[in-house]
Amino acid sequence: MESRWNEMDASAAIGRMGKDFGEDLALRVYSSRIIGQDTDLVVHGGGNTSVKTTFVDLLGEETEVLCVKGSGWDLVSIEPQGLPGLDLQALRDLRALDGMSDEEMVRQLRRQLWDPSSPNPSVETLLHAFLPDKFVDHTHADAALVFGNRPEGFAEMQDLFGDEVGVLPWTFPGFPLAKKVADYRDANPQAIGLVLHKHGVFSWGPDARTSYERMIDIVDRLEQEIQRRLQGKQVFVDVPDYTEGSFKLMASSALPALRRLTSSNTGSEFSPYQPMIAEWRPTPEALAIGEDHENRWELFWSTGPLTPDHVIRTKSAYVVAPADDEVLAAKVADYSLAYIEYFHQASKEREASVTMLDSFPRVFVIKGVGLVALGKDKKAAIAAADIAEHTLRGKMQGHALSSYEALAPVEVFDMEYWSLEQAKLGKAQEPPLSRRIALVTGAAGAIGRAVCRRLLEGGAHVILSDLEGDDLDTAVAEMADRFGATRVASVPMDLCDEKSVKQGFRDAILAFGGLDILVMNHGIAHVSSIEEMELADWERVHAVNETGTLLCCREATRIFKHQGIGGQVVLNASKNVPAPGAEFSAYSASKAGAVQVARVAALELADIGVTVNMVHADGVFSDEGSGKSSGLWDVVGPERMAARGLDPAQLREYYKGRNLLKVPVHASQVAEAVAFFAERKTPTTGAALTVDGGHAQTFYR
Ligand code: ZN
Questions:
Q1: Does pLDDT of 89 surpass 90?
Q2: Cα of 138 from ligand 1 centre, angstroms
Q3: Mean pLDDT across the chain
Q4: Ramachandran region of residue 694, left (φ > 0), alpha (ψ -120 to 50) or beta?
């Protein structure tokens, strides 16, 4: 491992932050970030750093403070605000105590915050405070875990480091660990850092660079030793030449099955499923382990994580299995039983009165598919996948060195059910569409964008589909910008092309693991009297509006059936279906056909828990959110204007005046109606909801 320290960047950091936050904190931010950039050192909120500096209070008095990483911040993107300051002397005084509960520790830490509105400081704050050194760095470096998590790891690390780097036995984080580390430091003034067995590495120094480079030095020595010992050994078996198409095919079959197998039951009869979101990665290591699963199966089933902190995102054990629905189902069932037993045994041993988390695995390694990680949203799934990648490599390397040995299950339990760790995951109420995956066709259009926005606001993961091109790209960029790139994906599809639709739905599965909501918002128009109608125009409109609806329904149905956790289909029909307009036969007839497809789908899909409903909108001219004009009106508008002798502004007024309520209809209101069905609020299927300001012709009949 090489140092990423760069004097120019360090100076730039001082230039950027020094004036407002001081040089110490500026360098602390800089070196924390270069630690965060090395995923072999830390991933996803792992590790923490600190600096001891002085702050001046309102009365002009100087106080010694400890600035330490706050919870909720990642080292790679940390800012000065992510390193809250605490009264250092007050923290040091606590070392005199014999013990302290975790809850008391959190209270004491909050009490000493310089700014009471700061995030909670790291659970390892006291450890940083009790060390005398100005800068302290802590990582969960892979090398220390690969080398250390073996039966002989502890002794070999002692041999490797001599008295320059301490090696301390596993101790649960918190007050007792802080005292142990400080005692070691007091007794070893020559030490540059220490390895906490099965946890990670600490380094320290009088300045940011020294502390950081000592960390790199310690980790580098371990990496070199691992490399030396692994020379000539094959860690991973060879993988057959899978083609990209074959991965995708297998993954698109396995992922929806995994969502069904790991879906919690909400207890509601009409909406019983609470599935997870998937991240799929066909990494060479995962594929190799998949090939080799017979031999190394036990290894991955039973052992704990590289460092206990990982357990909250990945659980302890992973599932390694072939891509076979029945085998996967059996493995998930076994996993749940094992998890329940682990929970009962450990909670009994610890006399802990805690509620069991769900018993489903978070990480799968599937033959021919690769790595699949699950989480309550894409962000959580990505975090689990990142950790899993390091874990797969680390455990295999440890196994190749001698044998991998994790913490005892009860120690892992301590971490998994530690209130301070659980707090990291957040307990906030999930929004209604959380954990749902929606595919929206015609997503680049005016109503399409409003629908995507509304579903994202509701917490859904949304796949935008439309013809390939700038319009789709702009819509995707807008959504990603506003709601975060992790919940937004796109699959270009040409609904006139069966192959394109098939491939589009397959790629949609790969984005988040399956499909829960299909919103068919596509539609094109053509203005012509029947007398003048060109057959090609008629067929073109029917291909998109009607056959496109059939193809989307067909592909979605296949996914819904295989996934087995119900679903919602919403068709953006049109007021034209109950109330057709002259010179609009292609549109009206094709939309009527689409509605009939949806009504039949409602009949056919009810027994697999899928609802199919329609929205009849009228007079939507644009999406007020993006300013995007309606494609339909771009086609129809000029003719309607000419026919009525109106300009565009008057035309909108005309349409407003034409409905019973005398109101304009907005894209966001159509989106609201779509969301009503998507959120599965009422046991309704085969129904239509009008969003047209009211027209006698569209009344219920
Ligand atoms: Zn740690």
A1: yes
A2: 7
A3: 92
A4: left
d(CA 56, CA 579): 73
CA distance linking residue 200 with residue 163, whole number of Å: 18
The answer to whether the CB of 53 falls within 8 A of the CB of 65 is: yes
Count Cβ atoms below 10 Å from residue 429 Cβ, excluding itself.
6
Distance 124 CA to ligand 1 centre (A): 7
Four-residue CA torsion sign, 334, 335, 339, 345: positive
For the stretch 329-356, what's the b/e string if a residue is b when 16 or more beta carbons lie within 10 angstroms of its beta carbon? eebbeebbebbeebbeebbeeeeeeeee
For residue 251, which of 386, 350, 423, 366 has the smallest C-alpha distance?
366
**Mind listing the pLDDT tens digit for each residue in 119-146?**
889 989 999 999 999 999 999 999 999 9
13/30 Cα distance (integer angstroms)? 6
Structure tokens belonging to residue 462 = 């949304």
The pair of structure tokens assigned to 570 is: 């919403």
Q: Which two tokens stand for residue 91?
A: 């923290």
Active-site residue among 212, 587, 654, 655?
Answer: 587
For 228-241, what is the mean pLDDT?
88
Question: In which element (H, E) is residue 498 found?
Answer: helix 498-512
Residue type, 124: E
Q: Give the Å distance between the CA of 103 and the centre of ligand 1.
A: 18
**In this predicted model, what pLDDT tens digit does every residue of 380-430 receive, in sequence order?**
999 999 999 999 999 999 989 998 998 999 999 998 988 766 665 556 788
Contacts of 58-67 spanning 24+ positions with Cβ under 8 A: 63/87, 63/88, 63/114, 64/88, 64/89, 65/114, 66/91, 66/125, 66/128, 66/129, 67/24, 67/25, 67/28
Pairing of strands 370-375, 363-366: antiparallel
> Among 405, 161, 363, which Cα is nearest to 262's?
363
405 DSSP 8-state letter: -
User: Is 184 an active-site residue?
Assistant: no
Task: Give residue 181 CA to ligand 1 midpoint distance, Å.
Answer: 13
Alpha-carbon distance 636 to 22, whole Å?
63
DSSP conformation class of 356: -
574-596 mean pLDDT: 91
Buried/exposed 579-606: b ≥16 CB within 10 Å, e otherwise? ebeebbbbbbbbbbbbbebbbebbeebe
Quickly list H helices, 303-445.
Answer: 311-314, 325-349, 378-401, 409-416, 419-425
The H or E element spanning position 68 is strand 62-68
Rounded CA-CA distance 435/63 in Å is 47
Q: What pLDDT is recorded for position 359?
A: 94
Q: What is the mean pLDDT of residues 486-511?
A: 97
Angle between helices 446-457 and 667-678 (to 10 degrees): 50
CB atoms within 10 A of CB 428: 7
pLDDT at 640 over 80: no
Task: Report how far residue 107's alpha carbon sits from residue 93's, in angstroms, rounded to the nearest whole number.
Answer: 15
> 261 and 329 in contact (C-beta within 8 Å)?
yes
The whole-number average pLDDT for the span 630-637 is 79
Which pair of tokens denotes residue 165?
A: 């780097």
End-to-end CA distance of the chain: 73
Give residue 326 CA to ligand 1 midpoint distance, Å: 39
CA of 306 to the centre of ligand 1 (A): 11
Among 155, 149, 140, CA closest to 404? 149
Helix, strand, or coil here: 70? Answer: strand
Q: How many CA within 13 A on the CB side of residue 466?
A: 24
pTM assigned to the model: 0.94
Give which of 228, 67, 58, 32 is closest to 139, Cα–Cα: 32
700/698 Cα distance (integer angstroms) = 6
Could you tell me the distance, in angstroms and rounded to a whole number, from the CA of residue 173 to the centre of ligand 1?
Answer: 8
pLDDT mean over 350-358: 88
